[in-house]
Design a protein that fits this description.
- The chain is α+β, with helices and mostly antiparallel strands.
- It has eight helices and eight strands; from the N terminus they run H-H-H-E-H-H-E-E-H-E-E-E-E-E-H-H.
- The strands form three sheets. A four-stranded antiparallel beta sheet has the order 2-6-7-8. The protein has a two-stranded antiparallel ribbon with strand order 1-3.
- The radius of gyration is 21 Å and the shape is globular.
């Protein structure tokens, strides 16, 4: 337990700080979608560094959360959108919920021609897409059932809920299809937000990376392979 997570002094550990409590992601979680921003450069730099230094971990997390195997181009666009929108300054975005809040900032994500990721919702996604009016999952891609119109299919996160009593958070993964100005919801599943998995994976990657810090190879070593 972190001292800043408690609204009282922790004997022998730390004294209560209102400022630290107000900035604590666990003690004072914010609902996604708010427009309030902070001006903490340290917190900003932490979010940006996580994205820059561990993009593969973030990439894998958002694929696991949504069940969509986003292309590298799509992931690149999301990163640019996040930075352009100054997502690192939003109060509701922190290092624990980053994969979810990062996705939430994207609003509608086009998944036309995308493949599905091997997640626990893969089969449910295939069924929902195949049961939709305009799309199907064919040859490992999300494609229109016919070519006689301009169809769109998008994914977004919605209805973020914070249960302070049980200290848990949930959010809906939603997929809609669009045609001729009409929008049809074809998939909606409420998932529990895991506030530990992402940052624990980052911390493990840091520990593993540190195992090679002391490796020093002299030039003579490589002469044996010439």
């Amino acid at each position: 337990m972190h001292a800043k997570h408690c609204k009282y002094d922790v004997k022998g550990l730390a004294e209560y700080s209102q400022a630290a409590y107000d900035n604590c992601s666990f003690a004072n979680p914010s609902k996604f979608g708010g427009t309030s921003k902070h001006n903490n450069k340290g917190r900003r730099n932490e979010i940006v560094s996580l994205i820059k230094e561990y993009p593969v971990i973030l990439y894998n997390e958002i694929r696991s959360i949504t069940g969509i195997d986003f292309t590298e181009n799509a992931f690149s666009y999301m990163i640019k959108n996040f930075i352009k929108s100054e997502g690192y300054y939003y109060k509701y975005i922190n290092k624990y919920n980053l994969p979810y809040s990062y996705l939430n900032m994207q609003k509608g994500i086009r998944i036309f021609n995308s493949q599905l990721y091997y997640s626990d919702i893969r089969n449910e996604l295939i069924k929902s897409i195949n049961d939709s009016k305009y799309f199907c999952y064919k040859n490992y891609k999300i494609v229109p059932k016919t070519n006689n119109g301009f169809y769109e299919i998008e994914l977004y996160l919605a209805n973020h809920n914070v249960d302070k009593e049980y200290e848990s958070e949930t959010i809906d993964v939603v997929i809609v299809e669009k045609f001729d100005g009409k929008v049809y919801e074809i998939f909606n599943r409420t998932i529990k937000i895991n506030l530990e998995k992402y940052i624990n994976t980052v911390d493990k990657q840091r520990r593993i990376n540190s195992l090679t810090d002391d490796i020093r190879i002299e030039d003579e070593y490589f002469e044996n392979f010439v």
